[in-house]
Amino acid sequence: MRPIEKLDRLSARVSDFYAASLLIVGIGHFISAKSRLSLIVGIIGSVLVYTFNKFGLKYPKVAYDFITAFSLILAFYFSIRFAYNSIFFPNGFMLIISAITFLVVGYNWFKQFPGDE
After folding, report:
1. What does the radius of gyration of the chain's CA atoms come to, in whole angstroms?
2. For residue 25, which of 102, 88, 70 has the smallest C-alpha distance?
3. 5-8, long-range: CB within 8 Å, 24+ apart, which pairs?
4. Cα distance between residue 80 and residue 91, in whole Å
């Protein structure tokens, strides 16, 4: 097995888009609904995903693990919120973006580290 030096290009770009989406949706929901929780989660989540994406240049396994787990947790959270109030933006939109991020980064994690424990 070849050594992995960084996140692959697709995972890095999807993670950058995910970080930007978290930030934009958090700020947008704060402006429209005055929700401080959305603002805080959007900013902190965006900073964490972006940091781990750049952290993946040195430790890619940790970055894959964190981004995959974080997107799965937020996909679960947004699915509950979307089921409760059926409003597409921001809940349905972030559910789709979180699920896509989970699938892309998770798939590339399994592709990069087959059978690694």
Report:
1. 15
2. 88
3. 5/57, 5/60, 6/56, 6/57, 6/58, 6/60, 7/53, 7/56, 7/57, 7/60, 7/63, 7/64, 7/108, 8/108, 8/112
4. 9
Write down the residue that tokens 């937020």 correspond to: 74
Query: pLDDT over 70 for what percent of the chain?
Result: 93
User: What is the pTM for the complete model shown?
Assistant: 0.87
For the cut 60, the answer to whether the pLDDT of residue 26 exceeds it is yes
Instruction: Assess whether pLDDT exceeds 70 at residue 102.
Output: yes
What contacts 112, CB < 8 A, 6 or more positions away? 4, 8, 60, 64
Tell me what pLDDT residue 4 has: 61
**Predicted local confidence at residue 114, as pLDDT:** 73
